[in-house]
Design brief:
95 residues; mainly alpha; single chain; rod-shaped; 4 helices
């Protein structure tokens, strides 16, 4: 069984690590910056590309955080309907 850690990284540390790990998603923005200096297209294409990259990383972080929060909930206790297993009451009566 895996032990859960008590501490976790801060939001900014996780964001920086995720930005570094998802660096390939910034290639369209970098291409737009190169085209801005080479062909003179608007700088807003570069800013929009970086904004979309940042939004994609933040959405992924939110999704993983939501999934982790949902996995912490324990399922409710269900009644044992197996007729061949020892019931708690039967086990306590035998002693």
């Amino acid at each position: 069984m895996m032990r859960r850690t008590v501490r976790s990284g801060s939001f900014w540390l996780c964001l920086i690590l995720n930005l570094l790990l998802n660096l390939e998603w910034s290639i369209p923005a970098i291409a737009a910056l190169v085209l801005h200096y080479w062909l003179g297209i608007s700088i807003w294409w570069f800013i929009g590309g970086l904004g979309l990259w940042l939004l994609r990383v933040l959405a992924g972080m939110w999704l993983m955080g939501w999934a982790a929060a949902c996995s912490r909930e324990k399922p409710p206790q269900r009644e044992n309907k197996n007729p061949y297993s020892a019931k708690t009451e039967d086990y306590l009566k035998r002693k």
